[in-house]
């Protein structure tokens, strides 16, 4: 069982790490001298565990951290770059080649990148590792693979099984294989202990399994139903037939296969079937998905929990504890065995289709509920399921399921636009559009989404081509709603290209036609008004921009949406800066940053931070301005938000010149690099630490809050936490979170203590 993530991007260890002292010393030493180290060995020998422990030990040598890239679930070589980008939180929104984007991101960083399970993508991993190491002098790469990458400068370190004793060995405690087996055995049966009576049996088990850690863990789980003597006898009889005493790679592979096969044989028929069906999942998954994908007449949903628990007890499935619930995972060797069994049963196509259908439903539900208070919950869920979305899209492409793939890729467009990389979203859309046989309704949606992705990337020609094709198809279908969306996207493209007159014309047309259609979509008018506000700012007309943003603030707060509210506040602040209202703009930007602090996305947070840099420069705080410019560079200049970036080029250059002249070149570079080295949460905290903020304005009148918000404010003043308030009001904690954020935003506060003080001032004093 594992829990969440440890600091530095590595998974936390829950089961004890046993032995490997010499190997750890060797690997950590190699990481000090070699820039690419590959741990090789058979499946189940412990390459990943050794790599993670070594990475943890050397993490302080890498100021920019350690990042784990899990590759076991990928089949497409082209996705290796995207997996690395995801691990690095690089959200590229340009049509640039992703390896170049990654190289630029890593160029001045001192970081360790752990590429786990490379053997099925050796060429792609080798090529990427070589290019990144050439571009980034401070980068080290630690890879695990069943075979070497054969990359330039690679140092290969073979990982052997744990040492094993003879049956007559006296000091069993001195063997790491025995120590590992005993640790896992007592986890399965706390009463189990090494005794004179079972010593030979334990030695026989460890020797028979050749010290392969995964095989030992699977065997230890059987002590719930077998004694050590029975276990030793069965393993001795079974594995002697394999002739695996040669200690060679092939023999150890056969030993592991036999150990896995034996664990499989000891499962009952329902457990075997579930093991096979679970192999379609990639990365982690939840019990709801298991029921949707694996349950049928043979495996009723009502008994699914007990079956999963049985496989966890047998160490076939791992249960991970996360703050928002439990997640399940299969080790890759066991998943491969299950996949082979699934194919032999003739069920692979049917189960993969159910997997695809389930994740299509998840994507569509997220799309429907994106605009509202649950958006951040959905964002976290989609991030968790990213590996399974990829697997579903790949299997859909393999099966030629054009409609399902186009619909899923379209439904995920908001996820890719927010979390990135947009290049991956566009890749899936383009591949989906290559399939024949999709109904025109799903194709026109995919074409429109592909056009939107191209706009975000700044690919004007690609966007125009896809939107023209979508417009023609929408005309043939008699689909006015898609036509309105295309008109809006053309206005958005014109805004990003710096053509505000053309943009305003298209956007107003989209606005009017949408009103005539009567379509129920609360977010679309908000998006149109955001683009109109930006276009009016570019045209030097701040008043209508502020009016549009004010309307958006009202709608977003009514629906509980935080992302578009953050954009509205940032764009309003830009208009206020153009009107000379610097302090009002600063207050709105702080609100925008607070809204994106929990789930920062590079676009809205980057815009707010960029504008705060302008304010710092105007206030005579050049160093703060330079740090904020560096932070903005990390958030959206490095991540390549080309379209939105184009709207601030002129003012950005002016701000940079101003702070550079004030600081001097050397001090400017140091401050800029400081900002560029901050993580998104650190950027948000720095931006909110506004040392030059003016004294707080007079308290807002209480009627600015709704009755429910005043009720929540009163409970905050009593010192209750959000969870306690939720219990008092019998509502969801997430609802209270939203109310508190609204109160903070309306009153321009940053802390709950300010709410309490404000509420105390609002209450009338005692009567005479």
UniProtKB/TrEMBL annotation:
According to the entry, every stretch annotated as the HTH luxR-type domain falls at 698-763
Please give the SMART domains that the UniProt record associates with this protein. HTH_LUXR (SM00421), TPR (SM00028)
- Output the SUPFAM superfamilies linked to this UniProt entry: C-terminal effector domain of the bipartite response regulators, P-loop containing nucleoside triphosphate hydrolases, TPR-like
Q: What GO biological process terms does the UniProt entry carry, in alphabetical order?
A: regulation of DNA-templated transcription
Q: Which InterPro entries match?
A: AAA_22, P-loop_NTPase, Sig_transdc_resp-reg_C-effctor, TPR-like_helical_dom_sf, TPR_rpt, Tscrpt_reg_LuxR_C, WH-like_DNA-bd_sf
Keywords of this protein's UniProt record, alphabetized?
A: Kinase, Serine/threonine-protein kinase, Transferase
Question: MF terms per GO, please?
Answer: ATP hydrolysis activity; DNA binding; protein serine/threonine kinase activity
- Return the EC number: 2.7.11.1
| Top class in the EC scheme | transferase
Q: Is Cell inner membrane among the key words of this record?
A: no
Q: Which PANTHER family match?
A: HTH-TYPE TRANSCRIPTIONAL REGULATOR RV0890C-RELATED, REGULATOR-RELATED
Protein name in UniProt: Non-specific serine/threonine protein kinase
- Organism per entry: Thermomonospora cellulosilytica
């Amino acid at each position: 069982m594992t829990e969440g993530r440890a600091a530095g991007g590595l998974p936390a260890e829950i089961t004890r790490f046993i032995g490997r002292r010499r190997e750890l010393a060797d690997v950590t030493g190699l990481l000090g001298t070699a820039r690419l180290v590959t741990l090789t060995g058979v499946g189940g020998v412990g390459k990943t565990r050794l790599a993670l422990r070594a990475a943890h030990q050397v993490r302080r040598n890498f100021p920019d951290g350690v990042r784990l890239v899990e590759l076991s679930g990928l089949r497409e070589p082209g996705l290796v770059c995207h997996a690395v980008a995801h691990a690095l939180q690089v959200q590229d929104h340009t049509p640039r080649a992703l390896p170049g984007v990654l190289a630029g991101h890593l160029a001045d960083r001192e970081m360790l990148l752990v590429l786990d399970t490379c053997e099925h993508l050796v060429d792609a991993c080798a090529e990427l590792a070589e290019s990144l190491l050439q571009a980034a002098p401070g980068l080290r790469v630690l890879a695990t693979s069943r075979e070497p990458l054969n990359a330039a400068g690679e140092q290969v370190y073979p990982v052997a099984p744990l040492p094993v004793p003879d049956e007559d060995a006296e000091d069993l405690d001195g063997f790491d294989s025995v120590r590992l087996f005993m640790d896992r055995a007592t986890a399965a049966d706390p009463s189990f202990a090494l005794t004179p009576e079972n010593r030979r049996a334990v030695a026989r088990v460890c020797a028979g399994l050749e010290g392969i850690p995964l095989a030992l863990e699977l065997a230890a789980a059987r002590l719930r139903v077998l004694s050590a003597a029975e276990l030793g006898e069965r393993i001795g009889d079974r594995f002697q037939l394999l002739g695996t005493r040669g200690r060679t790679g092939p023999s150890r592979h056969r030993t592991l296969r036999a150990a896995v096969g034996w664990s499989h044989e000891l499962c009952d028929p329902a457990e075997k079937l579930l093991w096979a069906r679970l192999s379609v999942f990639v990365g982690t998954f939840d019990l709801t998905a298991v029921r949707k994908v694996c349950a049928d007449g043979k495996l009723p949903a009502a008994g699914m929990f007990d079956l999963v628990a049985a496989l966890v007890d047998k160490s076939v499935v791992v249960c991970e504890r996360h703050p928002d619930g439990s997640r399940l995972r299969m080790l890759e060797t066991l998943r491969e065995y299950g996949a082979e069994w699934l194919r032999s049963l003739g069920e692979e196509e049917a189960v993969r289709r159910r997997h695809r259908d389930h994740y299509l439903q998840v994507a569509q539900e997220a799309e429907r509920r994106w605009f509202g208070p649950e958006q951040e919950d959905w964002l976290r869920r989609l991030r968790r399921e990213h590996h399974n979305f990829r697997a579903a899209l790949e299997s859909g492409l393999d099966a030629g399921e054009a409609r399902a793939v186009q619909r899923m890729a379209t439904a995920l467009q908001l996820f890719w636009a927010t979390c990135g990389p947009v290049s991956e979203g566009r890749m899936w859309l383009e591949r989906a559009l290559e399939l024949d046989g999709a109904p025109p309704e799903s194709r026109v949606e995919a074409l429109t989404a592909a056009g939107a992705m191209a706009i975000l990337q700044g690919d004007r020609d690609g966007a125009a081509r896809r939107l023209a094709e979508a417009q023609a198809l929408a005309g043939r279908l008699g689909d006015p709603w898609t036509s309105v969306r295309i008109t809006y996207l053309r206005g958005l493209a014109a805004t990003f290209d710096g053509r505000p007159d053309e943009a305003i014309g298209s956007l107003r047309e989209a606005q009017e036609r949408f009103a005539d259609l009567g379509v129920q979509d609360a977010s679309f008018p908000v998006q149109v008004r955001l683009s109109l506000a930006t276009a009016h700012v570019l045209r030097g007309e701040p008043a209508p921009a502020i009016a549009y943003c004010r309307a958006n603030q009202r709608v977003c707060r009514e629906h509980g949406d935080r992302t578009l509210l953050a954009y509205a506040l940032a764009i309003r602040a830009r208009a206020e800066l153009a009107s000379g209202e610097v302090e009002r703009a600063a207050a709105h930007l702080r609100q925008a940053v607070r809204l994106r602090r929990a789930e920062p996305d590079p676009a809205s947070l980057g815009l707010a931070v960029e504008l705060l840099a302008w304010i710092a420069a105007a206030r005579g705080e050049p160093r703060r301005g330079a740090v904020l410019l560096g932070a903005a560079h990390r958030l959206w200049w490095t991540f390549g938000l080309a379209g939105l970036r184009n709207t601030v080029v002129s003012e950005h250059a002016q701000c940079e010149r101003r702070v550079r002249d004030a600081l001097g070149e050397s001090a400017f570079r140091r401050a800029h690099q400081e900002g560029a080295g901050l993580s998104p949460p650190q950027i948000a905290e720095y931006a909110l630490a506004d040392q030059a903020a003016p004294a707080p304005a007079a308290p807002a009148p209480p009627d600015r809050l709704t009755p429910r918000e005043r009720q929540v404010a009163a409970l905050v003043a009593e010192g209750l936490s959000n969870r306690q308030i939720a219990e008092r009001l019998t509502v969801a904690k997430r609802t209270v979170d939203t109310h508190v954020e609204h109160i903070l935003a309306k009153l321009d506060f940053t802390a709950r203590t300010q709410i309490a003080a404000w509420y105390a001032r609002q209450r009338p004093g005692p009567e005479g």
